Amino acid sequence: MPRRVLQGTVVSTKNDKTVVVRVERQVMHPLYKKYVRKSKKFHAHDEENRFKTGDVVRIRECRPISKLKSWEVVVEE
């Protein structure tokens, strides 16, 4: 089964080797048929503390690293 890959914005880098990434998506409201923006935060593993607040990153599913972290930042070079 392939790992999910999401794209989002880094909103916090206060923890060591961890970034908090906000992933936004648009869903249509069932009654009003208008698109509503929804977001969710994910804790992702950043081994080298490379990313800063405001960076756009891609994260992918991985094994559970801690209680909250089961995503890792994909480094694209």
Automatic annotation (TrEMBL):
Keyword Ribonucleoprotein present in the record's keywords: the answer is yes
Q: Which GO terms describe its cellular component?
A: cytosolic small ribosomal subunit
Write down the InterPro entries for this protein, in alphabetical order.
NA-bd_OB-fold, Ribosomal_uS17, Ribosomal_uS17_bact/chlr, Ribosomal_uS17_CS
| GO BP term (any one) | translation
Domain of life per record: Bacteria
Keyword annotations for this protein, in alphabetical order, are: Ribonucleoprotein, Ribosomal protein, RNA-binding, rRNA-binding
Spell out the molecular function terms from Gene Ontology. Answer: rRNA binding; structural constituent of ribosome
In terms of SUPFAM superfamilies, this protein maps to: Nucleic acid-binding proteins
Pfam families the record matches: Ribosomal_S17 (PF00366)
Q: How is this protein organized at the quaternary level?
A: Part of the 30S ribosomal subunit.
What family does the database annotate?
Answer: Belongs to the universal ribosomal protein uS17 family.
Q: What HAMAP family does the record point to?
A: Ribosomal_uS17_B
State the function annotated in the UniProt record: One of the primary rRNA binding proteins, it binds specifically to the 5'-end of 16S ribosomal RNA.
This one is known as Small ribosomal subunit protein uS17
